Structure formats: structure tokens, C-alpha cells
UniProtKB/TrEMBL annotation:
Its cofactor is Fe cation. Belongs to the pirin family. Keywords: Iron, Metal-binding. This is Pirin family protein.
Amino acid sequence: MPHTPHAILSRQPIDGLRWPVLDPFLFCAHHDDAYPAGDGQMGLQAVALDERELGSDFSGKDGFSMYHGEHVPGFPGHPHRGFETVTLVRKGLIDHADSLGAAARFGEGDVQWLTAGQGIQHSEMFPLLHRDQANPLELFQIWLNLPAARKMVAPHFTMLWSERIPRLVHTSDGGARTTVTVVAGALPGAGAPLPPPPESWAGQADADVAIWTLRLEPGARWSLPAAQGAQTRRMLYWFVGQQLQVAGDTLREHAALEMAAGQDWVLENTGSDVAELLMLQGRPIAEPVVQYGPFVMNTQQEIMQTMMDYRRTQFGGWPWDSQDPVHGPEIRRFARHPGQQVEERPTA
């Protein structure tokens, strides 16, 4: 009889902020913060902060962290070089500012894709805009590596607005739906994929990079199609739901699953509530990775040069009045690309 490959090559539990990844990805963080009502200045209302290590609070106390923010939660200005950040916002709004002069407030399913390349500074703040209700925030931040030949490309700011991102909706025989949101990569039936930034590894024809989110209603059944490339590696993260079948294997605990990417595998939500998954795949870059905090290069010497370059140039400087700029109290979605007018988007 012919050998049938195992669908799940390995599995790891996922619990907390940081999830395991495979080359060409460097990092995947799931931020899920139950922020309370705001104080009218986009900070926290009626919450004691004196028990937190402000400026470095990853405690998750009371269901949220301040991260590096001291009044408004978030990540004040910091540098990057040598890779890309992809930020998928599921709930809430994020205020972005960077050394290119770009600014944005985005959320409600939007994705920001930032090529750090030779160097950029940016801030990511989480303004608490509602004073009379909670301000939940949920997002994925994914770091996608750049190959050595492209680590020093010009930085680039990209917005993928939720209403423009391709989606596939598949209805099972019983009427339950599977919705696949295609941030990167091609999926038959989802429409034309959005182009990634010009120098991204995701833009290489044979890189087979895909970033998808999947939502399966109870009883939904959908066949995850095989990857296009023979070298593609695929990680499937199941993080919401009660019970899931993957190629006939019943799972009851959320996990990161390295999947055999060369074959179709059936996913079925056998639980009583919605199941949600994230998929990251791509052909490995297969180069040395040397990381020092927010810098990712190929050698220690390049890291040392990066640190000297940042001290000397500040990667273009910081054109904002503060290290943690926020963009006013209005509920809005917008982006100002470098040297361009403001683009406004409708809010839900």
C-alpha cells in the first residue's frame, strides 16, 4: 500500500504572548488585552498602575499589559533593521508613527505591513478612545525575515485595509461557513491577492509566502489546500474553539501545528463554538539569523555595524513631538503615507 504522510509533523502548545515560528518567519506575538474605559486622554481610567513596572509591563495583570507605554499602552518609538513587521488587528485601534513621516490609525481587520530594510523607527500605541465602555485590543504581530540581498533596501510603509483584503467563504453541506482571510498569498476562489511591499520575501514568485486567518462555524468542514512549493513549510495555529479535527486527528487543546504542506488536509470544527486559526507558510530563506533586540542580520559584525549606524543616523531621526504620539480622540481609520495626503477609511 502507498505510504500516507502524517498531516501533523509536530505540535506545540500555545499559551501566552509569543508563539513558535518557522523560517522565513522570525516572530509571532498574539496580543489580547482587555483594556478598561479610557480617561479622556487616551490612557486608563480608574486603574491603579503603581503595581506595574511601567515602561516594561508585560504582566497581563487584570487582563492587560501596558507594554512599554506609561500612560497610553503600547510601544513608543523604537528602531528596526533587516526584516518586516506584519500587524493584523482583530479588535481595537492602533496609532502608528514612523521616521518616514508616515502616520496611521488602523484596526477592525486592517493590516499594516512595514519593511524596515536598512532602518526605520516607529511607534505603535494603543489609544483608549472609549470613556464609557471597555477598549479591548487584539492583534497579531508577525516578523517576516528579509534575505541578505534585501536587508538594506529602503524602508517602506504599506496599509492593507480590511475591506480590500481578499476573503473566501465556503459553505459546508449543513450550512456552516468557513471564512478565510488572505493577507498574503493566493487562494483559489478568494480573488486576486493584494501585492506585498516591493522588496518583501513574500513578493518572490517561488517564496510561497501565505498569511491567512480562518474562521470555522460549528460543523464547518473545509479542505486546506496544499502549498505550491515543494520546500514550503507551514504552521497552523489553532487558538479559538473547543474541538477541532485536523485530517481526522481530534484536538482539544490549542496548539501550533507544523503541517505537511504538500497535501490537502481537511479541517472540521467538531466543537459547539466557533474555531479560529492563523496560518503562516513560506519557503525558508535558509540563511544565518543573528538577532539583537529589534535588529535581525546575518552576522555579528552586521549587528555591530547596525548599532553604530543607529547611533550615528537614528535611521532618519524622529519627526514627532513625543516618543509615543497618538492621533486625537476621534474614532477613525486613516493613513498618511510619506509625502502624501491623508487617506480616510470608514469605521464600523
